[in-house]
């Protein structure tokens, strides 16, 4: 509480800030808010810290941005003391890193685990937020920060008969802590997005039989993951300052080298050689070989056809290869998957691929899955069916702003934010990596750090100016949403039925949610707002 508030006799909140979620966002937010001397409580639904990396324990789970980029940059000492062992570390290692961060900065004492925030309501009379949890906490706070994650609201499709299945079911994003035994079992995986593509090759190594139910074929590129040798580890540490600067200056928050020519300008053999080189290098940088893969249909077709040719080369059975080739989606307009042995897995005799567009799943029975072709018997069904992305975690909380305004209702036609950070009618409520921000189109950790730092500076300046409430104006958010839509319309993103558009959730409004202008332009927009006395926010 500021001195001004005390002087004015404003209601005293229990806390200065409540942060919801203890993943990359919540942990860093807590650390920085404490740095301002604020009293903060983090509520986390999971039984540990780590967010995504607490929940996603499925076999094969790993990041697809290189370890040295997919980590915090705020403390050079942390960079030097933590040792990544792989190019793309697996979930246990990223989780251990976040556990280490929680311990190193003494964050745990302010985090309440196993506790879900059920509601957050703004009280017009006191000007404070009242936050209630499923475990009976009922606290008031001046600020609420939603660090609830873009991909944390796991979604299982509504297939009739699910409750009847006698075997085990699990969702990749809610993996049982005790693990799942696949050895010698008949397993079904439903879904071939990023998580499915990572899990399928590992499950196939253990299961007696694996059926993959695919609705939409997926573009995936090889990770070419590897252990880091002593020399490479030393080199990474030595070059951290440069790497961190490069990621901050890059549109995607990575050190991927971006091509500077149009794919349509170069002769076909040169174009293929450029894609080939990126395919061999591994990782999600393939579309960045040229400037226009995401904006020009011909450039995209060339990249898409290159990957399709690789699928046909790898997969021995031509019919299976054909089913695995995406045709109705521009490459990278949906999140590009990064895999280890995904396509080759289908060369195993005990692995089959079912195209659910041709043979829809009709129901789940006691024994397994019934499609239009007949019943398949399973011991385990794995749902790799993704998330109610970007808005799901927020809409599962009853958030009410001024005069009882419900966030769910306000966003019923799609999320409306200013800079992805705040929304009109909800003073002092902030979102990290929210809809309208670059988040999922970037290295999310870089986006998160930027958000946290920008918000902390805002709170610092509010405090020193005696400002009690900050709120996005309706005008500013309408303009921002128009700007995001306009940028998206210049790309091929809207052509894919992706979770970026909410297309994976029946009934969800079709709105392109992340900001597609890149981190550099986004940072610049945020900087301008701050420099112009927080233009577009009302400060009272
Ligand atoms: P999260 O890590 O999702 O944490 C949010 C936390 O909020 C969760 O722990 C959740 O339990 C908690 N929460 C939500 N609602 C409530 C509530 N009502 N009450 C209490 N707690 C609540 N990004 C990349 O940039 N590169 C990658 O390689 C990459 N790989 C990924 C792989 C997978 C399998 C997934 C699912 C995501 C991946 N992501 C990747 C995106 C990833 O989510 C972000 O990089 C990052 O971890 C997000 O951190 P966060 O703290 O914002 O959200």
UniProtKB/TrEMBL annotation:
Its EC number is 1.14.13.-. One of its GO terms (molecular function) is monooxygenase activity. Pfam families: Pyr_redox_3. The keyword Flavoprotein applies. Residues 245-271 are annotated as: Disordered. Its cofactor is FAD. Keywords: FAD, Flavoprotein, Monooxygenase, NADP, Oxidoreductase. Residues 258-271 have a biased composition (Basic and acidic residues). Belongs to the FAD-binding monooxygenase family. This is Flavin-containing monooxygenase. It comes from Prauserella salsuginis.
């Amino acid at each position: 509480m500021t001195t001004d508030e005390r002087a004015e006799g404003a209601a005293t909140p229990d806390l200065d800030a409540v942060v919801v979620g203890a993943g990359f966002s919540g942990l860093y937010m807590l650390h920085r808010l404490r740095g301002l001397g604020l009293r903060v409580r983090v509520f986390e639904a999971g039984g540990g810290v780590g967010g995504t990396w607490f929940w996603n324990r499925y076999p094969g789970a790993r990041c697809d941005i290189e370890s040295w980029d997919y980590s915090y940059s705020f403390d050079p000492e942390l960079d030097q003391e933590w040792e990544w062992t792989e190019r793309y570390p697996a979930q246990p290692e990223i989780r251990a890193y976040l556990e280490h961060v929680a311990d190193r900065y003494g964050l745990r004492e302010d985090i309440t685990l196993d506790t879900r925030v059920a509601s957050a309501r703004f009280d017009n009379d006191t000007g404070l937020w009242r936050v209630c949890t499923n475990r009976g906490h009922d606290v008031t706070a001046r600020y609420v920060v939603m660090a609830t994650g873009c991909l944390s609201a796991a979604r299982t499709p509504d297939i009739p008969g699910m409750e009847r299945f006698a075997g085990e079911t699990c969702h990749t994003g809610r993996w049982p802590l005790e693990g799942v035994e696949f050895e010698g079992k008949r397993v079904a995986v439903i879904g071939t997005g990023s998580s499915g593509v990572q899990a399928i090759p590992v499950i196939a190594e253990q299961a007696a039989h694996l059926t993959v139910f695919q609705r939409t074929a997926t573009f995936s590129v090889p990770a070419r993951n590897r252990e880091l040798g002593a020399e490479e580890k030393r080199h990474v540490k030595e070059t951290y300052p440069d790497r961190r600067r490069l990621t901050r200056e890059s549109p995607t928050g990575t050190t991927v080298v971006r091509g500077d020519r149009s794919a349509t300008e170069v002769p076909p053999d040169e174009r293929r050689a450029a894609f080939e080189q990126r395919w061999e290098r591994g990782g999600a940088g393939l579309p960045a070989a040229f400037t226009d893969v995401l904006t020009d249909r011909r450039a995209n077709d060339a990249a898409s056809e290159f990957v399709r040719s690789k699928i046909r080369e790898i997969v021995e059975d031509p019919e299976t290869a054909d089913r695995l080739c995406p045709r109705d989606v521009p490459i990278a307009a949906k999140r590009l998957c990064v895999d280890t042995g995904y396509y080759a897995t289908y060369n195993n005799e005990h692995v089959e691929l079912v195209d659910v567009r041709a043979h829809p799943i009709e129901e789940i029975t006691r024994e397994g899955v019934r499609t239009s072709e007949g019943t398949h018997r399973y011991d385990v069904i794995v749902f790799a069916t993704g998330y109610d992305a970007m808005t799901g975690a927020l809409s599962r909380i009853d958030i009410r702003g001024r005069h009882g305004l419900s966030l769910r209702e306000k966003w019923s036609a799609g999320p409306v934010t200013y800079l992805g950070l705040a929304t009109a009618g909800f003073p002092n409520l902030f979102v990290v990596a929210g809809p309208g921000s670059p988040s999922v189109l970037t290295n999310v950790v870089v986006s998160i750090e930027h958000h946290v730092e920008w918000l902390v500076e805002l709170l610092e300046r509010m405090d020193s100016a005696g400002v009690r409430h900050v709120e996005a104006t309706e005008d500013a958010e309408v303009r921002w949403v128009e700007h995001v839509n306009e940028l998206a319309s210049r790309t091929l993103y809207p052509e894919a039925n992706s979770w970026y558009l909410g297309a994976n959730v029946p009934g969800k409004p079709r709105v392109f949610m992340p900001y597609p202008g890149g981190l550099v332009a986004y940072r610049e927009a945020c900087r301008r707002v701050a420099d112009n006395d927080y233009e577009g926010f009302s400060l009272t």
